[in-house]
Amino acid sequence: MTLSKIPLAGVIGSPIAHSKSPRLHGHWLRRYGLPGHYIPMDVPHDKLAETLRLLPKIGFVGVNVTIPYKEQMMEIADLISDRATLIGAANTLIFRKDGLIHADNTDGYGFIENLRQGAPDWDPKSGPAAVLGAGGAARAVIVSLLDVGVPEIRLSNRTRLRAEKLKDDFGNRIRVYDWVQAGNLFEDAATVVNTTSLGMTGKQELRVPLDGLMPGTVVTDLVYAPLETRLLRVAKEAGCVTVDGLGMLLHQAVPGFERWFGHRPEIDAATRDAVLL
Length: 277
Ligand code: NAP
Known about the structure:
By secondary structure, this protein is of the alpha/beta class. The chain folds into 2 domains: 8-106 and 253-276, Leucine Dehydrogenase, chain A, domain 1 (Rossmann fold, 3-Layer(aba) Sandwich); 108-248, Rossmann fold (3-Layer(aba) Sandwich), CATH 3.40.50.720. Helix content is 34%, strand content 18%. It has 11 helices and 12 strands. It has helices at 21-31, 48-54, 73-76, 82-87, 107-118, 136-147, 160-170, 230-237, 246-252, 254-261, 269-276; strands spanning 8-13, 37-42, 60-65, 79-80, 92-95, 101-104, 129-132, 153-156, 174-177, 191-194, 218-221, 241-243. The strands form 2 sheets. The chain has a 6-stranded mixed sheet. β8, α7 and β9 (174-177) form a beta-alpha-beta unit. It is globular. NADP nicotinamide-adenine-dinucleotide phosphate is lined by residues 107, 133-138, 157-159, 162, 195-198, 200, 204, 222-224, 245, 248-249, 252.
């Protein structure tokens, strides 16, 4: 089989039509004048491992992996980064020249970089973080918040057991609260994060009482459709520093793009516009 000289990458999920990643990577490839293609691939569950072994043979240098396959990468990959191991899921695969598949998770990196860019004065060590939600995205958020030194994470999830599991996995800097208490977690918080899907277009609204939000708190929402969720709107009115979730999606893509196409891409207004078009 002849190998393409033009590097190929892409995103694997099911469904995949909604993914913004092809638009993002396509924008960067054009912007930097780099040879390469980034392709969305809807792969059925029973063909996943086989597809991942075939792709390097036809010129792919790596792929992103999205819902519902991120956890499965833990079984399929040959090498797994420490952060992907901690999170228990991978979103970025590197196809190495020796044939091995290396899995990494850049969601937590994207989350932190988005806060650093959107709230340059944010000091994660200056107070507790309140985190709503304990699903897949929450694991990456919690690992990265602990990594940058938050003194305490106040965690609340509709299904308390899932939050308790995160505490078991990640230790005693996490304190779990009932979902009905979620509105009480914001006082003195340096950081507030919504990792639930509430507030997303087509889903229920986040109905947690928000009157405890304090001026100066950095508030972010992983939901980016709409860009300004109710949480962010109310937080802004309360004098908080708000950062929308689109930036996390953009920043998590940086390490993969750099590795596959050889150029570290920048994230600015043009990048956001390209994805929002
Ligand atoms: P997930 O694993 O399915 O978790 C969903 C979370 O939302 C759980 O905590 C769930 O609580 C909670 N939830 C759902 N419906 C609820 C309701 N009616 N009332 C209260 N809580 C409810 O999903 P995920 O992968 O973590 O993703 C969560 C959100 O983050 C999605 O909107 C996703 O698009 C977004 N996200 C954004 C980025 C980004 O780059 N900005 C990256 C990853 C994810 P239970 O445990 O009780 O079900």
